[in-house]
Amino acid sequence: MSQLNQIIASLLSDINEAKAKADEASRNLALTYSSDDVLQFFPVPKIGIQNLEVELKYAIEGVEEKPFQTSQSKERLENYVKNFSAETAREIRSEITKVASKNDLYKSLGGNYPDENWEGNVSKLISTQLESLTNPGNDVSKNIQNAKKSLEGDFPQIIPTVMKSAGFAVVPTGKGSFELLGISDNDEVDFRVTKDYRTNQEALNDAKQLSSSIASNKASVSDFKKDAVTKNDLASIKIGNIQLPIEVESKKVGSSQPKAFFETLVTNKAISIKNPTVKQPWVIGRPTPKPKPNSPNTPDRAEIEEDESLREIAKEVLKKRMIQLEAGIGKIAEETKSTSLRVAVDSEKLSKVKPENVMTIKFTLNSQDFTMMDDNSKPSIL
Amino acid sequence: MITPRYISELLGAPMAAIVQAEGIAARATADFIKEVGFTGVSDNIDGDYGTIRNVTFSYERIKADGNTEIAILSVPLLTIIPIPSIQVAEAEIEFDLAMTQPEASPAPKGNSKLGNLSAYKGVQLKAIFAKKPNPSSNSTVTSATSNMNVKIRLAQSELSVGMVQLLNILDSANKEK
């Protein structure tokens, strides 16, 4: 089973090779003639094809549509993927900015997060993952699914996540560090530990110590101050030998005495840690997340809940955009594909085909089709 | 022929055969000239054919004074007998082929686009010689009959520029010996 164009191309090539065999015979004779005293005066036999007719019977077995692989179609796909990647990165950035600005837990990222540089790098990342789509003929759906899966795998690294554990949250900042927040059951910020953590593990360790000290009523607050610039009330919370600076928005303190406010804050925190509100699935309308495979299942780790709101919004954007991508690539593929006939030419197969399905192609070549160019670029007589 | 052969071989073989046949005919002519026209050919391999073979005869010639004399005339034999020399002016080859399932051609090696164009055909065609299909038969093609008819008309052509140059070089080399 081959394509008709391949068959004809092969036949033409065979004709050229056949003529070359005749020419080779002439060349060999010329060498023999030249070394013979009598034959050297004889004309060397040299034949030229005046006319060649081929009549070929074939049967059509099917019509094949293949992507037309030209540099233009590849360039078109490359441009499309490049623009798509840039637009997708822009949309993900815009959605993340919107969600992050509305969610208190992500305020430390800053109002401009993510920046243009982030968008540019994400655009390149998407573009790299979609590179296989720029080769016409590849399985578009499969490649898009693979690229989507791969990009979603990269999201945990490029999209910040808040880790919550027993009334505390470790939040990422726009500077690349982490902060520790005391949060209510409704994820509202109670207080902020004014310390920059290089890793989320460091912050989680402090969270663990704070939580256990507060729960066992071993934490005490002191050093109450007001910061007029940031409009925050400051204090220090002591847990064992460690003293952590904390701050609360002054408007939350209101007219209360700072000492009384912070002590109540710690007391309430102790109650909420000891009696955590269980978010029942039927109340919140969300099933309990199943433990992730390969994730460490230590008791400490099991208590940590990840807030994936930014990652989820990025996934949603990606899902929507990938549907558009498939349609876009499909449209380009549709516009650049070529149709060819799949034919059978072997006589045994043709013998089993109904006579009405056997077709004939005839072509004729004449002497001009075998003309060569000589040194002066003029056609020589063959 | 049962084993399928490449189409290029099936097309090239009769064309090359015509050229070679002409060469054999030319060789026969050359041998005729050497054997009939010259003496001592058999023991010469370096082109010295010996002396030219003449036909000598005598006849009685009448002189101006009315008397007669015996005249002897000697002419080269080659000038009085026709030299057998044949050349194919035109040839027509027609044959029918039954093609077999095309084979995938190996992909070209290297990066040259034009260099491998002729070598890479996508498919390689093979066929066997077969009989023409019977037009009165209902079945268009049977396994024993052909599905490809080829007609080639050939004529003697002048030597190409390259071939003439080659012969000139060889000729000069012979003279310089």
Describe the fold and architecture.
The complex is a heterodimer of chains A (382) and B (177). Chain A has three domains: 2-65 and 341-370, no CATH class; 71-160 and 311-334, no CATH class; 164-290 and 297-303, PH-domain like (Roll). Chain A has eleven helices and twelve strands. By secondary structure, chain A is an alpha+beta fold. Chain A has helices spanning 4-34, 71-102, 116-129, 140-158, 200-215, 250-253, 258-274, 281-284, 299-302, 309-336, 347-350; strands at 2-3, 47-67, 162-165, 168-172, 178-183, 189-197, 219-227, 232-239, 242-249, 305-307, 337-344, 358-366. The two termini of chain A are 36 Å apart. Chain B is of the alpha+beta class and 177 residues long. Chain B has one domain. Helix content of chain B is 27%, strand content 27%. Chain B is built from two helices and eight strands. In chain B, the strands form three sheets. In chain B, strands 1-7-4-8 form a four-stranded antiparallel β-sheet, with helices on one face. In chain B, strands 2-3 form a two-stranded antiparallel sheet. Chain B has a two-stranded antiparallel ribbon with strand order 5-6. In chain B, a hairpin with a 5-residue loop joins strand 2 and strand 3. The radius of gyration of chain B is 28 Å and the shape is elongated. Chains A and B meet through strand 1, helix 1, strand 2 and helix 11 of A and helix 1, strand 4, strand 6, strand 8 and helix 2 of B. Strand 2 (47-67) of chain A pairs antiparallel with strand 8 of chain B.
